[in-house]
Amino acid sequence: MNAELNNHPEKLKVKLVPLAEKHLEAVMEIERDLFNQPWQVEDFRGLIAKPEALSLTALAENKVIGYSCCWIVIETAELGNIAVAREYQGRSVARTLLEATIKGCRKRKVTVLFLEVRSSNRRAIELYKRYRFAEIGIWRGYYSHPVEDALIMKLEL
Ligand SMILES: CC(C)(COP(=O)(O)OP(=O)(O)OC[C@H]1O[C@@H](n2cnc3c(N)ncnc32)[C@H](O)[C@@H]1OP(=O)(O)O)[C@@H](O)C(=O)NCCC(=O)NCCS
Questions:
Q1: What is the pTM of this model?
Q2: Which residue's C-alpha comes closest to atom 16 of ligand 1?
């Protein structure tokens, strides 16, 4: 990343810590607010328990304001979830989470990071493109509520 992008004027200072049980109540509140098909608390719990997961909580002003969930299988990783509470969006929190995830993947010798995103989710797609994720395919009708295609994106690390 170049210096200009890292020094975004609106950038909020956040602390990143591993996702933990104590964060889940706040995480579920954000998750239910942002997604039509929210993950269940057990989905997050499953990742906390897994050593091959790389899941982060973003904290600011003494509260949970965002999170990202990634899991690694040998040299491949999947970013399964990333979200920032509505009132904190647009202040580079997702960038901070994504940069830490990419760094963590590199440290664990991951060579490729995949994700899927709703084809209408412009914000998320812009974010991923900024980090040089490439569109590599489409799964037709992958999502429900509403039915929508998934864009598959990949970042070579
Ligand atoms: C997508 C999401 C995680 C971005 O979080 P965020 O903290 O607001 O993002 P950032 O402030 O770090 O912005 C990073 C980049 O995202 C894109 N972005 C953010 N807000 C945007 C907006 N309103 N319009 C277009 N692009 C936007 C831009 O590329 C931005 O880079 P820039 O600040 O240099 O312009 C957040 O909007 C969110 O939680 N959305 C709902 C959950 C979701 O859709 N998650 C992704 C599932 S695949």
A1: 0.92
A2: 127
CA of 102 from ligand 1 middle (Å) equals 16
The boundaries of the domain holding residue 30 are 3-156
For the Cβ of 86 lying below 6 angstroms from any atom of ligand 1, the answer is no
Q: H helices of 20-141, where?
A: 24-34, 41-49, 93-107, 122-130
Q: The CATH number of the domain where 55 resides is what?
A: 3.40.630.30
Number of domains making up the chain: 1
d(CA 118, CA 106): 26
| pLDDT mean across residues, the chain | 94
> Which residue, by CA, sits nearest to atom 4 of ligand 1?
94
Could you give the 3-state DSSP secondary structure of residue 157?
A: coil
